[in-house]
């Protein structure tokens, strides 16, 4: 019979206060198979681990049980210790008497009894545990980055610089994302394009980066190290291999389409590049707006293109790629102004959102950097900025803080004062949140030196009156209601995940949180990873963030990918399902219940096998298997039965 | 002709009888009859739902229970206060089981059959929110269809610019009333369009008229009504249309005080939506109760050739 050692941890007073740990050790000694039992104040400390290692050797133990905290925390610690002392790591088990016992009970007598039962249950499991070896899984050392904003660009560059191949997929025709739309960036006021475009060019030229713009993810299958990805390359109706980017087609196109890049403040043709510094600098034809596609006549672009790059017959193409890791960097959008009924629901002409104001401030924008309002092109003398438009409003809109608005609104007001010296900016705010290096100083300077009027309160209503945009708000510091007849109103609308993110996460099978942002594996300790292995997160798709944070997270995600690729192969936990080939009746129920696509029918053997690399060991197929052919390693039916008996007090 | 259970409420029985009459006239021409409940009491006019007191919910619940017991599941109201009170009471009864039980205990205690009930409670069925409370305008929009109104027009109101006024309780709170978006509604605008008139959009259409402040601080109400009416007038409106008797009272009668307080003020005629409807459906001019209005509406109707003089019938 196996000689089992039980080590009971006090966890300071975390366990010992509620559970009589000495009695747990004494009672453990009485259990069948237990050859040694001992308690100790901090089992995870170095002396604690030394005790475990020494006793394994001295007492000639075949298996050990650590009665302590959740296996999520220290299972790997103690398995490593066991291995050092010569045991197979799968001969080490954790009995969780903290999270599942001492922390949730107050009656010491009952809690102690429960802890003894928990240990007894794990003893039953351990008696029948087999020694296992990790399953080696190969890695395709190529990364897929979804989203070509600053997050995706940074992550791609970092991975590519370390020598691995990257496919960067972007659904628009150019990379750059929202950062390309911005004028100047807080708190240093460097020009956004000036710091972004070198990175765009570098990503476009990097030998290890394959750019796939105007492309979308169609399908993803596989698992960490071995993903298969199908990518839709949308028809641009321009042969990019021929196009030299001369721009003649765009000049001649008679159609007028309002520019999404310029936030509807300008128009471009049906054939267009979103902005002059686009990478790649190749145009696409917007099929919905193209006169030829709508009426069957025109083809002017084709006539003027001397090299014959226009191709109206082009169709969507599909490419399949194999990658080892996927970074999701799909970014954000802002809550549409039309959703804000009390702010005119999009019907007020001189009411725009923050990104539109960025375009008005931008030297490459529709007004060449002059602040002119959309309705009549006049320079506004009074501008009201409204923060938290849809944020921090759990009853009607979004409950969370969009994080970037306090800073960018201050920047907006400041840049406006720099352009229109006699102009008066007002900012309505709930709180000013300036957590960040140099942020508070930036705000202070704006408030004290630039004559920006900050009004603490929410805006109730905005409407058009003549050529003025009237804002009703409250200043909660003076307790007065305020009415401002402004020339222009700028809303800091809530940062929300891109619409397309919801669709994408279904294809990737990764999780999102309650507000639709991507969910990280651990909010503090694993902020750049998805809970699903092989997926990493970067940028505002995971939650509202500014540029420095986005870049930091992107580099963090890239580093995780590089560390994954630096290994020869991956090791998969072997405690997964296996099939007794003689018993399998190939009914295939297991295939239908497996959430990980790990069960597949083997035509040759005529049974359903387990793809060990995909199996997460959830046990669904084990429970579903009608003839008991599928079993889980180290959690067999006989183990579970004896565990249940032990947990109920039997032996 | 279909008969639909109808709760007029106190105002429509008295001061606003012209709202009641024009509604009855109009609906008959649209093919259904407002069938006044045989017995009804005061609904409580908002206070029942404005504080958490079970006792306050008993009167409106009794009205609703009577409708259910008469075998009907729809109750039409016109007054915004009655609508708000009855609909929200029903919402509470439906969604809050404990309150439902307590209210029903009061109701049972209050029935003439009480002695029998004590012996055999199988005679009693708790009121559980079975009745759907519908505003007449909601009925016209969702059940009849505004297009049916347009088809039935006997007189064109073309050329009239009408400013809708929503007041406070017709649409709020949104999650309980669910009639329209209270910040940016369109139900009255669409109604005006259905009458062939032109709705005027103006910023004050959802602002407060002062409601009961008219009693306690009339000056405040005067100021609020001045802003609403001036905004409507400046947006080109010939008249303002309302559905709430209290809004009507404030916006119409208060114009005397407004004229005294604000020298630049020009009076604006106020209509109940049912009056415009009934005029457009060809109901006799003299039945509209226009003589009850403080501000003369004749010039507005003159504008499109429907005046007292012609007063005539189709």
Fold topology:
The complex is a heterodimer of chains A (651) and B (314).
Chain A: E1 4-9, H1 21-29, E2 34-40, H2 46-58, E3 63-68, H3 71-84, E4 92-96, H4 108-127, E5 135-137, E6 142-146, H5 150-161, E7 165-169, E8 184-185, E9 190-191, H6 192-205, E10 209-212, E11 215-223, E12 226-233, H7 248-252, E13 257-258, E14 267-268, E15 271-272, E16 284-285, H8 291-295, H9 300-304, E17 317-323, E18 325-328, E19 332-334, E20 351-353, H10 354-361, E21 382-389, H11 405-419, E22 424-429, H12 439-449, E23 453-456, E24 459-465, E25 468-475, E26 480-486, E27 488-493, E28 495-497, H13 499-508, E29 535-537, H14 547-565, E30 570-572, E31 577-579, H15 589-593, E32 599-602, E33 607-610, H16 620-624, E34 630-632, H17 637-647
Parallel strand pairs in A: 1-2, 1-3, 3-4, 6-7, 6-18, 7-10, 18-29, 20-27, 21-22, 21-27, 22-23
Antiparallel strand pairs in A: 5-30, 8-9, 11-12, 12-17, 13-14, 15-16, 19-28, 24-25, 25-26, 31-34, 32-33
Helix pairs in contact in A: 1-4, 2-3, 4-17, 5-6, 5-14, 10-11, 11-12
Chain B: E1 2-7, H1 10-13, H2 17-29, E2 32-36, H3 47-50, H4 58-69, E3 74-77, H5 80-95, H6 97-109, H7 114-119, E4 132-135, H8 136-152, E5 161-164, H9 174-177, H10 187-194, E6 198-199, H11 213-216, H12 218-234, E7 239-242, H13 245-253, H14 255-261, E8 270-272, H15 273-280, H16 298-303
Parallel strand pairs in B: 1-2, 1-3, 3-4, 5-6, 5-7, 7-8
